[in-house]
Here is the input.
Amino acid sequence: MRRFDMRLPAIVRLVGADEFHTETQNVSARGVFFYLDRAVAAGTELEVTLTFPPHVTLTDAVRVRFAARVIRCETLLPSSRIGMAAMIENYEFLRSDATADFLGDLEKEWKAAE
Here is the structure.
């Protein structure tokens, strides 16, 4: 599975907790790597919303929300940020009328890659 090094704005919501604004380090069709200021146990369920900017989508910005599960934490000293690898379990495109056709095509491509 190919990973794309992309720093994308992300909102991470832990089940039963507040949301955290961060950015991704890399993204693939099945996973995402991002940083938080706290450790999260492997197996923790979370919800992540990413915004793909126009230079990536070649149209309007596109938001994708997905359910994921933490599979690994990485603490890189002396940084206070903790890296999280999460496996994507389910996703949905947050649609607007202007991007519906593009998102339909992109969703088909992602599902074909699964």
